[in-house]
Design goal:
The complex is a heterodimer.
Chain A (H helix, E strand, L loop, with lengths): L2 E6 L3 H11 L7 E7 L3 E3 L3 H6 L9 E3 L8 E5 L2 E5 L4 E4 L4 E3 L2 E4 L3 E3 L7 H4 L6 H13 L4 E5 L10 H15 L7 E5 L9 H14 L1 E4 L4 E5 L4 E4 L4 E3 L2 E4 L3 E3 L1 H6 L23 E3 L12 H19 L12 E6 L5 E6 L13 H18 L5
Parallel strand pairs in A: 1-2, 1-9, 2-5, 9-19, 11-12, 11-17, 12-13
Antiparallel strand pairs in A: 3-4, 6-7, 7-8, 10-18, 14-15, 15-16, 20-21
Helix pairs in contact in A: 1-8
Chain B lengths: L7 E5 L6 H12 L5 E6 L4 H12 L2 E8 L2 E7 L4
The chains are: A alpha/beta, B alpha+beta.
Chain lengths: ~375, ~80
């Protein structure tokens, strides 16, 4: 009788995990099922390129059912509740599914309520629709005061606000609007980017392009009528265009199931990704409470760890693959240049690389490799 | 002097920059004037970041101590 692996969430982590495992295990040993409420899978880093008119909806999406290797069953359904004690998942339509192993890969959700006025006042790229809206707003923009930066704390992809700032600078220059515009970059920290060495590269490039950092600016509220953004520190900025990262929290199903912290992040152990107190349930990607960035690359490496360990376990061996917090990030900086940074739990002050065209090309090649090598679980 | 009791504790041990300061700012958003926030951290970069933050935001660092690699900071919310 095969064991049953249930994966809740078919984003990067869930898909990579399912495909990586499906190619290695016999179907007599393991049944793999992925549940997700959405039919379409989006390449989320592509939202940045949608906002600046370099990609569109079609080029960054595929039907989920076509992404899985033979041996993976995809079920389109919404999960209402997860019961770790009973090893059972309850669907919104009333159905139930049991499992031998569970992997929660439910990602993160936007939480506009945290910042009054955010939904009405700010643009962003954290959903495809919002990226498309930002593209329209940029096309209609006639110049003025642009405020870009970190809105809510805990957000997906730490470098995205910086990428938006650099690409906005480039976009406005290409349309002859840069001299009629000022760009300010707001951050709640004492510098635009937390890790110090990459921050040096960022600050240098900002200076070169006339982007003004505004530090210790924790966005508290937005007044869309007066076009003002207010900080917790008591400052205000006027804007003609406002682009901020929205605050995130864990998925609704995690909050409903009572298995996360008060923001809905699931506590897991940092090396094996086991959910605290359970040996048959894991969480990966944005869903966890781990002190690592909420990005696809983290979900990728975590998915590989869990896939390897389940494979070993099915073969009667002990779990021996450990996640070390590894992250790798290429930061698009406009002008066909990009920088990059690597880090893990132990090595966090890696140098930020000098921006080059090679790194920019690496980022572009990632856009194509994503659908085959990465989601397929080959690398 | 009697021990000051924190209103809330932020356990940022094991978090690297900017984790401890980010978590302090999240706690600060929810806090009221007069509250005392305790932060436990292991990242050596936290101390200079905290001092710069307190200076800029006008909040009071009551004490910063270090024992066994853990930095313990008490901050009184005096400005919001």
């Amino acid at each position: 009788m095969p064991k049953k692996l249930l994966i809740v969430g078919g984003g990067d982590g869930g898909t990579i995990l399912a495909n990586r495992l499906a190619r290695r295990v016999k179907r007599d040993d393991l049944e793999i099922e992925v549940i997700d409420k959405e039919e379409t899978h989006f390449y989320q880093p592509g939202f940045l390129f949608v906002a600046f008119g370099e990609a569109d909806r079609r080029s960054i999406s595929k039907q989920r059912a076509r992404l899985y290797s033979p041996g993976v069953r995809f079920t389109r359904a919404e999960v209402r509740r997860i019961d770790l004690g009973r090893r059972e998942v309850e669907l919104k339509d009333g159905g139930r599914k049991s499992y031998d192993y569970l992997v929660i890969a439910t990602g993160s959700a936007l939480n506009y309520d945290d910042i009054p006025g955010f939904k009405e006042g700010a643009n962003h790229i954290w959903t495809l629709e919002d990226a498309e809206r930002l593209h329209q707003a940029l096309k209609n923009f006639k110049g003025g005061s642009v405020v870009i930066g970190v809105g809510g704390l805990t957000y997906k992809c730490p470098v995205a606000p910086l990428e938006i700032a650099f690409l906005t600078d480039e976009f406005l220059r290409s349309r002859g609007l840069r001299e009629k515009s000022e760009i300010k970059f707001v951050s709640p920290l004492e510098r635009p980017y937390g890790p110090r060495l990459l921050n040096r590269v960022i600050v240098e490039s900002m200076k070169e392009r006339g982007i003004e950092p505004v530090t210790f600016f924790t966005v508290d509220s937005i007044d869309p009528q007066r076009r003002e953004v207010h900080s917790l520190e008591g400052d205000s900025l006027k804007y003609d265009m406002l682009i901020l990262s929205p605050p995130h929290r864990g998925a609704e199903v995690i909050l409903n199931s009572g298995i996360g912290d008060d923001e809905g992040w699931i506590p897991v152990d940092r090396h094996y990704l086991r959910i605290r107190d359970y040996d048959d349930a894991f969480a990966i990607g944005d869903a966890t409470n781990l002190p690592v960035p909420k990005t696809g690359v983290i979900a990728h490496f975590e998915a590989s760890t869990v896939a390897d360990n389940l494979y070993y376990e099915l073969r009667g061996m002990e779990r021996r693959s450990m996640f070390d917090g590894q992250s790798f990030c290429i930061i698009e900086m406009g002008r066909e240049q990009a920088s990059a940074q690597v880090s893990n739990y132990y090595y966090t002050e890696a140098p930020g690389l000098i921006p080059t065209r090679v790194l920019h090309l690496a980022k572009l090649s990632m856009n194509t490799m994503y659908w085959t090598c990465i989601l397929g679980g080959y690398i | 002097m009697s021990e000051i009791k924190p209103t809330v504790t932020v356990d940022a041990r094991g978090l690297t920059c900017p984790g401890p300061l980010t978590n302090l700012i999240k706690a600060y958003r929810k806090a009221n004037v007069g509250d005392v926030i305790e932060v436990l951290a292991t990242d050596p970069g936290f101390k200079p970041d905290l001092e710069a933050w307190a200076r800029r935001t006008g909040n009071e660092i009551i004490s910063v101590s270090e024992e066994g690699g853990t930095i313990r900071a008490l901050i009184r919310v005096s400005s919001k």
